[in-house]
Amino acid sequence: MPRFFFMALVGALMLPALADDVDQYVQYVGVGSFNNGLFGDYQIGNKYGNIELRAGQFRQMGGGWNFNMSVRRYIEQDANVDGFYVGAYGGQVDVIQVGSDLVRRTGVGFEMGYQWVSPYVKEELFGGLGIDRQESQGTSAVQATPSFLVGVSVSLDLHPKRAGKSS
Hints:
10% of the residues lie in helices and 61% in strands. The chain is mainly beta and 167 residues long. It has a single domain, classed as Porin, CATH 2.40.160.20. The strands form two sheets. Strands 1-2-3-4-5-6-7-10 form an eight-stranded antiparallel β-barrel. Strands 8-9 form a two-stranded antiparallel ribbon. A hairpin with a 2-residue loop joins strand 5 and strand 6 (101-117). The longest helix has 17 residues, at 2-18. It is elongated. It starts with a helix and ends in a 10-residue tail after the last strand.
């Protein structure tokens, strides 16, 4: 999974270089929490939607790092206004204790959220429904199960002078 996250990060960081006009995209960096993980995030998007890359740690002792991402589409607005979005997420989304082992859960699913956007800060509240795949670690195994994702994030606009502009 870290290799996938690294490739997604490189791709997202290259998007501004591919844009014809610097006002066509927005970038945010911030912190947040979902389920039992704390993460830092990087978001890049345009008036249609965004990609959010998250890296962090699970709260359980020894839970390790998690990497996941969301691809989102705004509903009837662009990146710089308050409103709803829908999307999909994938990556490491949970860690649970089974006996003496901690088992990392990798999953995919759909999410929906609401964002509040000011000239400098974007705040988000999001939730999702997905499925965690069957995992095993050591002698412990966990069956595939439905999963819920609930989270919040607060991110700073990396280009606040451009806030409010959309193409």
